[in-house]
Amino acid sequence: MRFIDTHAHLSLLPCEARCREEKLEQLFRGGFRGIIDIGTEAGDLQTRLKAFARFEGIRFSAGIWPSPEAIAGRKRLLPCLERHISAAAQGRLIAIGECGLDRYHNQEANGADLLGERELLERHLDLAQRHRLPIIIHSRQAAQETGDILSQYPQVQGVIHCFSYGIPEAKRFLQAGYYLSFAGNLTYKNAQGLREALQFVPLDRLLLETDSPYLAPQPFRGKSAEPGMVAETYRLAASLRQMSLEALQAAIAQNVSALFGPCF
Ligand SMILES: [Zn+2]
Description:
Layout: E1 4-8, H1 17-29, E2 34-37, H2 45-51, E3 58-62, H3 68-72, H4 74-87, E4 93-102, H5 114-131, E5 135-140, H6 143-150, E6 158-161, H7 167-175, E7 179-182, H8 192-200, E8 206-208, H9 230-240, H10 245-260
Parallel strand pairs: 1-2, 2-3, 3-4, 4-5, 5-6, 6-7, 7-8
Helix pairs in contact: 4-5, 9-10
The structure holds zinc ion (ZN).
Zinc ion binds next to loops.
């Protein structure tokens, strides 16, 4: 059970606080190794730190997801995010993000502010550089532009979370030094391209995640995802890479330490 879920939104799990805590307790009692709880809003870090403070196996990121509201309000929200980052206790906050570009939701045709979206990502990269923290990138239907922006920040290390592209895009992000993280959609029937990308990624650049409560892996598809379900994604990834589950768990743990520091 030595699994690590490198990307979950624990506060979005659709159950009451007490039920959520019981589930997490049960998970960690069973040997689950660690969860990175991911921020999406400028002011959500304090609340999340407080809600999950007693779980040694949870670490945190802080960032602003590129919603139209966040893009429009970025001048006001970014200073707030930075205040929360500076105030966070050493060791609990281990990354900046998630942040990035989403051309599925934000399209020029719909009047989205693409320059603003780009600027929001660049300010996160500045933050990562200044605070010497890795960055967690959300990139959907925007591989080229994401790669262009990341290449301007060669000192920043990070991960392309919920990787959704093919081998050519994987190559570019790997060349830029990024890790690639695969979520539960790896197990979906139509995801052959993703499975090929997973087989292509060098073992020392691979991460796995749930993106809970989204993208529950098979056989849970359609339900709300929880960190424990990451086991299904590990099992499939191990079989695709023709390695044992234990060896994959060890490799992912090592990659987590290499990118985020020794946190679990
Ligand atoms: Zn996410």
